[in-house]
Design a protein that fits this description.
By secondary structure, the protein is of the alpha+beta class. It is built from 5 helices and 12 strands.
Length: about 260
């Protein structure tokens, strides 16, 4: 029996995520007030400030990386093993479960799918913290005049019945454009792990997210975000000595810099 892999290092990646359009990630509607929004955003119950759940960030970035073909090198993102059809015959996505590609190594494979041969390779290496509204941004937003409630705006949308032309209005709470959140991601590094490739893939996920959307109603303008590469920094913690070292991400960021075509 081979010895288990040992956790050698933890890398903490910090960045600033800024909303460029209204962001809606739904919260509980328990205790809604009369006249309030129909769809509220998730908020910290202690401060009332909105935050971005780590589960939303992790799921969205994994989905984008899989769609972009960074998983399953033998089959690509349309591999039949995790692309099937729902009850009405519509294509439906599922997560890659090969347990070998970089996406599976970073994000993990469900326990029931990670058979004995995959072992530690199928264990997720990423921890996405809930992204909290920065103190500076929160203080600024307290002085914004046109918010419907502290830290949020209300947007009314109307759906039209195609037969009767009746209007059905509904109100959405959104985190307004210009809010800044503190993004923290932790990467576990075990024996033999390709550290640089993991960091490179995470940065690619950030870039894909910038050109997609986060949260709900994205096709209608919601959820456009930016992760400022000038504020991305990484620190490595050695698990044996507990010493920390700041990592230089300049090469990885340069390789992933989006440049406009001159054609």
């Amino acid at each position: 029996m081979s010895c288990p892999q040992i956790l050698r290092k933890k890398i903490v990646v910090k960045a600033v995520l800024e909303t460029l359009s209204g962001l809606h990630i739904g919260g509980s509607d328990v205790g809604l007030k009369i006249g309030g929004a129909d769809k509220v955003v998730v908020k910290d119950p202690g401060t009332g400030r909105p935050y971005i759940p780590g589960s939303s960030l992790k799921g969205k970035i994994r989905c984008l990386l899989e769609k972009a073909g960074y998983c399953c090198p033998s089959g690509g993102p349309f591999q039949e093993s995790y692309h099937d059809r729902g009850e009405r015959g519509k294509p439906r996505w599922g997560s890659c479960q090969c347990g070998k590609c970089l996406v599976c190594q970073l994000f993990g494979v469900a326990a029931e799918k990670a058979g004995g041969e995959l072992n530690i390779r199928a264990a997720g290496r990423l921890i996405f913290r809930d992204a909290q509204l920065s103190e500076k941004s929160a203080k600024e937003m307290e002085n914004w005049r046109y918010l419907s409630a502290p830290y949020v705006e209300a947007k009314t949308e109307v759906s039209i019945d195609r037969v009767t032309s009746a209007a059905n209005p509904r109100n959405f709470e959104r985190v307004p454009a210009g809010a800044r959140f503190e993004l923290v991601v932790v990467i576990d590094i075990f024996d033999g792990d390709p550290e640089k490739q993991y960091l490179d893939l995470l940065v690619k996920g950030f870039k894909l997210l910038e050109n997609d959307y986060l949260g709900g109603q994205g096709s209608r303008g919601y959820g456009w975000v930016r992760i400022d590469e000038k504020n991305i920094e990484a620190t490595a913690y050695d698990t044996s000595t507990m010493k920390e070292t700041k990592l230089d991400l300049s090469e990885i960021l340069a390789e992933n810099k989006v440049e406009a075509s001159s054609e």
